[in-house]
Amino acid sequence: MSTFDEGFVVTDVGLALQSKQLANGEALKFSRAAYGAGMQPDGTDLRTVTAMVDEKLELEIVKSSVVGNGTVDITVMVDNTNVEAPGFPLTEVAMYAMDGDTEILYAYAYF
């Protein structure tokens, strides 16, 4: 299993979207983030992940800013009022972006 120390991994589809938008002079538009409780099979290359295993909680993006050196700081709002007790083990975090009208899994963290 990976540790969160590795941070977010930009997925293959996320990298393709970033390249396409850069080539077309377009901005990358993040749509939302999510927490999940899924388990990836051992040895999974996180760059190939296209969907969360078990999405549990959608997170609203409230602010984003360019930090520099290819880094973006994204602030999300967590509202857990609809999470039933006892909650869930947090094992996945995902960042989604828009490719036209289609939402794609841009970056993924698994721990």
Structure notes:
By secondary structure, this protein is mainly β. The chain has one domain (4-110). The protein has one helix spanning 12-23; strands at 9-10, 30-36, 55-68, 71-77, 92-99, 102-110. A 6-stranded antiparallel beta sheet has the order 1-6-5-2-3-4. Strand 3 and strand 4 (71-77) form a beta hairpin. The N and C termini lie close together (6 Å).
What gap, in angstroms, lies between the N and C termini?
6 Å
Largest sheet: 6 strands, antiparallel
Question: What proportion of the residues is helical, as a percent range?
Answer: 10-25%
Unreliably modeled segments: none
Give the overall shape: globular
Order of helices and strands: EHEEEEE
The percentage of residues in β strands lies in 35-45%
Q: What structural class do you assign from the helix and strand content? A: mainly beta
Mean pLDDT: 90
Count of alpha and pi helical runs: 1
